Amino acid sequence: MRKPVIAANWKMYKTVSESRKFVNEVIPACTSITEVEMILCPTFLSLAHMCEDLQGTPIKLGAQNLFWEKEGAYTGEVSPYLLSELGVTYVIIGHSERRGHFGETDSQVNRKVKAALSFNLKPIFCIGESLEQREQGITNKVIEKQLEQGLLEMDQSSAINLTIAYEPIWAIGTGRSASLEDAREAISFIRQWVSRAFSQEISEKMPLLYGGSVNPDNIGQFLARQEIDGALIGGASLKEDAFIKMVTIANNIK
Ligand code: 13P
Question: Does pTM surpass 0.90?
Answer without folding.
Answer: yes
